[in-house]
Amino acid sequence: MAGAGDRGRAVLAVAEVERTLNARAMVQPDDLHPIALFNSNGDWLAGNRVSLPGAAPFDQPFLFTVQQGSEAVQFRGIVHRMPTGEALLVAQDMRGAQAFRQAMLSALLPAAAAALLFGLAGAVVAGRGALGRIEGVTRTIERIVNGNLSERLPSNGRGGDIDRLIGVVNGMLDDIERLVHEVKGVTEDIAHDLRTPLTRLLAGLERVHRRATSVAEYEVAMDAIGTAIIETKGILATFAALLRIAEVESGARRAGFITVDLNAVATDVAEFYEPVAEAKGISLSLEPAAEGSAETAGDPSLLFEAIGNLIENAIKYSPSDSSVRMRVLATRDRVGVEVSDLGPGIPAEQRDIVLRRFHRLDRSRAMPGSGLGLSLVAAVAKLHEFHLAIEDAQPGCRVVLWSDGSHPRNRNTVPFADQTELA
């Protein structure tokens, strides 16, 4: 009984669908959106007058063609099987969608072609500009390779990644040019500064070889040998200083950086050179940092050596009964050491040149030394990323060695007092 009732309701539902579809077909007879009902054999029952496509899948969209007069019209539809076996077709005429697609293509293709042309034109312009810059850089590099180290890569000054790279390369070229000039001058400087002690050494040894036939001559020979030993030690000290500068400039000592208090280093330097200053009648004074601490990251033995060279030069070139003052700097934006003396000073045009190896002022040629002290100070300053400035103290000379900022760039848990001297 229950099955017969369900069957009756399904038949009534199909009849209601037929009436609804026939009423719709009368209102919309254009067949643009056909909806039709077919029996289980595929015969039309109600709705728009269309044929059921053969082998149409149920409940899946598909495309089919309907012949309307002389035109074959494409439709997109879906077929649903009713509980009573009838098939319900819902379809849509695809001519509107196709016309819209064609209109979109007609509108977009010219715009796409124009965009492509503009893009190609922009690429050509940008490419020509880039190729021009590359060509300029290439020609400059060729001139540098051919020996013109004063050349620099051209920059348009507009910023950007290429200009930043060019700036870095030009900075590297500045360092290369400086180093090459220094290397070129080393041979001449060595020949000039070592020729005299080597000549004296050779002459003394020749005198020893020719003489020493009596006691008096033996004493003279011993004096010559002593002089030769002193000259040899001086030569060895010069080469040791050269090796020391080369070691510092290689950057190998940077791995041993710790937190260093410049107050402690300056105190050690003052204590070490105080007897030297007293022997010449010079007053050596130290003014610690006002804030009590002047910490920076560095190698304590190299900083001791650099500051010691500044003090040694100040004592050497200061007149007797004068003073040498050392001051430790520790402010918000600067930490370093300042050494001032009352000597003759360094002319402004010579302040960069005196940092070169073996370079000595004419008035200093007769004084002992190799001309490597300030070169070592400059190498230590560069290793520690310090600034080095030679100024006029009016009277005298003032040398300032400092770093930007009072905080160490690299802290280490091992305190300075526990380090073994590396020099």
Compressed to H and E, one letter per element, the order equals HEEEEEHHHEHEEHEEHEE
Helix content: 40-55%
Physical arrangement of strands within the biggest beta sheet = 2-1-5-4-3
CATH superfamily of the largest domain: Histidine kinase-like ATPase, C-terminal domain
Let me know the largest β-sheet. Answer: 5 strands, antiparallel
What is Rg? 48 Å
Choose one word for the global shape: rod-shaped
Structural class: alpha+beta
Report the end-to-end length measured between terminal Cα atoms. 113 Å
Please report the total strand number as a whole number.
12
Which segments are poorly predicted (pLDDT under 50) over 5 or more consecutive residues? 406-423
Strand content: 15-25%
CATH class of the largest domain: Alpha Beta
Task: Look up the CATH topology of the largest domain.
Answer: Heat Shock Protein 90
- Count the DSSP helices: 7
CATH architectural type of the largest domain: 2-Layer Sandwich
Tally of domains = 4
Q: State mean pLDDT (0 to 100 scale).
A: 76
